[in-house]
Each structure stands twice: as C-alpha cells, then as structure tokens.
From TrEMBL:
GO cellular component, one term: periplasmic space
First-listed, main subcellular location of the protein, grouped into a coarse class: periplasm
Superkingdom of origin: Bacteria
Protein name, per record: Multiple sugar transport system substrate-binding protein
Keyword Isomerase: no
Protein family membership: Belongs to the bacterial solute-binding protein 1 family.
Keyword Ribonucleoprotein applies: no
Top-level taxonomy: Bacteria, Pseudomonadati, Pseudomonadota, Alphaproteobacteria, Hyphomicrobiales
Family matches, as InterPro entries: Bact_solute-bd_prot1, SBP, TAT_signal
Native source species: Afifella marina DSM 2698
Keywords: Periplasm, Signal, Sugar transport, Transport
C-alpha cells in the first residue's frame, strides 16, 4: 500500500484559497454583515475555546486557518486552549460549575449531559445547520440533544479501526484478516508466538480504552443498561466478554493496563506491537516520517471483528461543541460555530483531518478524503455506524457519569489483571453504575 502523502497535505492546500479570500481588503466586515451570517457578534466580542490536543497536524492547521478567517471576517479574536484528551473533561466540568474560564468547549461523548443547565441553548443554530447541510447523523445528534433542546452542536466521530502490519499477519500464518472474534484471538496468539504481539489499552484512555471496552462488551451481547435504564452489566453475556478479554490480554505486550490514548500509538510505531485499534492518526504518524516508510507501507486497517452477537457493534469517539452560559458573547460564539460549519470551511477541515474526523452532517459524506486512500475506508462509516455509549438506554447524566468514571473500562482491567474475579468485577461495575442509574 503506497504512502499517500498528498492526502495528508491536501487540507492545507485547500485552506490556502479560503484564507486568501477571507483576507481580501474590504471584504471582511462586509462578509460579517452578509446574509450568510445568521448570528451577529456583539460589539467588542472575544472568545476562548477549550479543545482536545490534535493527533493529526492537518486537522489542527485547518481548524486554526478557519478560525483565523473568522477573525478576519468579523474582528472577533478567538483564543484556543489545548488540553490532553484526559484533561478536557475535568477542566470543562470545573469551568461549567464555577462559571468562568473558556467560553466554549470541544468535548467528548455525552459530557454535555453532566452540566446541561450550564450550557447555552443552541437549538436555533443546530437546527439551521442541519437544514442547510443535509441533516445530522442520528447517533451524533443524540450526543448533542436533550429532549427537544440542543445543548451542544455535533462536531464529529473519530473513527476507530484495527491497525495492523500486513507482513506480520502473514508471517503468523494468516492470508487475510479474521472477520470474527474467534479467529481474531487465534491471530493474536500467533502474533505473540512470533514475537510481534498485539496491544489494546486497559487504562483510562478516553478514546481507545473506551472503544475497546465497549466493543468487548457489545460484541458478546452485554449491555451496561437495558432500554429502561435498568443496570444489566452483571450478566452471562458480560462474563463471556470478560473471559474473552482475559484470553486476548494474555497475548498482549505487558503493561497495557496503564495505557492512555498515546501509548498504543507509541508502541506500534516503535515496533513493540503489530496490531491495535486506533484512529487514522496512527497511519499518518508513520506516513509523514521518512524513517518509518517501511512501517507505513505495511499498515492495513479494518473494522473490528464480529462477535457472538452476530453484527458489527462499535463505539467511536464523538466530539461536540458547547457554549457555556457564563460566556459574555453568546451571539459571537454562535457566529463562530456557524462560520466553521460553512461548506467550504467544514470540507477543508475534514480534508485536512485526513479521515481522522468523520462528519456530523450528511452533506460532507461526499468529501473526497474518504476515497483518496484505502487506509481511510474503515473510518468512513463511523458517524453512520456508531452505537452510543449509553446503549441500550438513553443518553443523559447517568450515561455521562458512568463513562466519565470509567466503570466499564475498569471492570475489564480488574478482571484481566486478576485484581478481581470476573464475578467480582461485574458486581463492582454494577454497584458503581447503580450510583448513577438510581
């Protein structure tokens, strides 16, 4: 598979034209007052956005270029603060509850449901955007809407897929990647025997740890809660998932119980492991480094195997944009978000992200990034196929609390490391979940 560096760089090229247009003298203020802008910034407005640290350089460059274009068009300065994936959640919660700090946050999963009364109602903005751009994907919309009110604007799904070394798989005796969990376990056993093991995070990794834990549970038919929000994690299906996780864990490189989101990337690129699940950022980290050319050309991607439940059931990281009620310039914040979702701006950001961020609005499914490289293909359906973390119950404060408290991630970690028996781990997860679903 050839390295497609053009894909990685194309976002920057696309943005050059947009940035140039926004900088035309005399056009900036006129643009701000045009019909294209539904929301007009308050006089003297300035904004501050808290966002997660990017894993793909082109995504950050595209977002920043669009932000610069907004400032040039409106005169509203936007300060962007970056925090690690793990730190965005607690810092946003503190800002919401003390009523100061960043005006907006780019948050994870159903975090907005932890403090919905601290957020600006953005139903007018989200409705306008949905109508203008083909409608929201249902799963992503669910992460932003409480009943009939949008408490956030859906931003993206960050697709999760298995990344593996083709040559290592073939040396392990497999001509193609296994489609089911039984075959997947056999592959991981063979990889370990060859000294090229797999590795998945069992630590408190916001993205990769949650993705892996939910896939383990759902692929075996387990659920944290049922349709009526009754806690059902203590079940035969969950025990089967734990037993499978224990068998997989035996094939992993040591230390995965402490891994955060960065660790599996580092282990893969250091050739300590040859298989994990990650966003497309892992491929591009290798593709942009000439010293890793051999690794990049050997990387393949595929969706996670299907378990006893008989269908693909995956969690993908989701991100939303919220405006805090303590924001002094809420109209400016809405104008900023409206600007960022304009077709040329959003297409440039998605392309710059090189398949890392899957669109929240259906119009952008036709972005050429999805067909520009075979590596991108498993990530192209993330927004359409994602299952919300609150499954099978509704999203809300309870699901947000269970996710933020790493109840499911900890259950698997406790069991695979032998800290608790499967029965004890399930009972502990049940006890912790009931604190939220009571």
């Amino acid at each position: 598979m050839p390295i497609d560096r053009r894909t990685f760089l194309s976002g920057t090229a696309s943005l050059a034209a947009g940035a140039a247009f926004s900088g035309v003298p005399g056009a900036r203020r006129a643009f701000a007052q045009s019909a294209a802008m539904t929301f007009q910034p308050e006089e003297g407005a300035s904004l501050r956005l808290l966002r997660w640290v990017p894993f793909v350089t082109g995504e950050e460059e595209a977002w920043n270029a669009n932000t610069k274009a907004f400032t040039e068009a409106t005169g509203v300065e936007v300060r962007i603060d970056q925090e690690s994936w793990e730190d965005v959640r607690p810092k946003a919660a503190v800002a919401a509850n003390v009523g100061s700090g960043p005006d907006m946050v780019m948050s994870w999963f159903d975090d907005p449901f932890q403090y919905p009364d601290k957020l600006v109602d953005v139903t007018d903005l989200a409705t306008k955007l949905g109508e203008a751009h083909g409608g929201w994907y249902e799963g992503l919309e669910g992460y932003a809407r409480q009943d009939d009110t949008f408490i956030a604007v859906p931003l993206c799904a960050i697709g999760n897929a298995v990344c593996y070394r083709q040559s290592h798989m073939e040396k392990a005796g497999f001509s193609e990647f296994p489609k089911d969990t039984d075959g997947f376990l056999e592959l991981c056993k063979a990889l370990k025997a060859n000294g090229t093991p797999a590795g998945f995070p069992h630590g408190k990794a916001v993205g990769d740890g949650n993705n892996y834990a939910h896939w383990l549970l759902w692929s075996h038919g387990g659920m944290m809660v049922d349709e009526n929000s009754n806690v059902t994690i203590n079940s035969p299906e969950t025990k089967a998932a734990i037993e499978y996780a224990k068998a997989l864990y035996e094939t992993f490189i040591p230390g995965t119980e402490s891994w955060l989101d960065i660790n599996n990337n580092r282990a893969f690129l250091a050739e300590q492991i040859s298989l994990t699940a990650n966003g497309v950022s892992l491929y591009y980290a290798a593709a942009k480094d000439p010293a890793m050319k051999e690794i990049a050309e050997d990387i393949r991607t595929v969706n996670l195997p299907i378990g006893p439940v008989g269908k693909s059931v995956e969690l993908h990281q989701t991100s939303t944009l919220s405006i805090f009620k303590h924001c002094k310039y809420p109209q400016a914040a809405k104008a900023y978000l409206e600007f960022m979702y304009q077709s040329d701006r959003m297409n440039a950001w998605i392309e710059g992200a090189s398949a890392y961020c899957c669109q929240a609005l259906k119009e952008f499914a036709d972005n050429p990034v999805w067909t520009s490289n075979p590596v991108h293909e498993p990530y192209s359906r993330a927004s359409e196929s994602l299952r919300p973390n609150g499954y099978a119950g509704p999203l809300g404060p309870a699901s947000a609390g269970v996710m933020a408290d790493y109840v499911l991630v900890d259950m698997f970690a406790e069991a695979v490391t032998g800290q608790r028996s499967p029965e004890e781990a399930m009972a502990n997860a049940e006890r912790r979940a009931r604190r939220y679903y009571s």
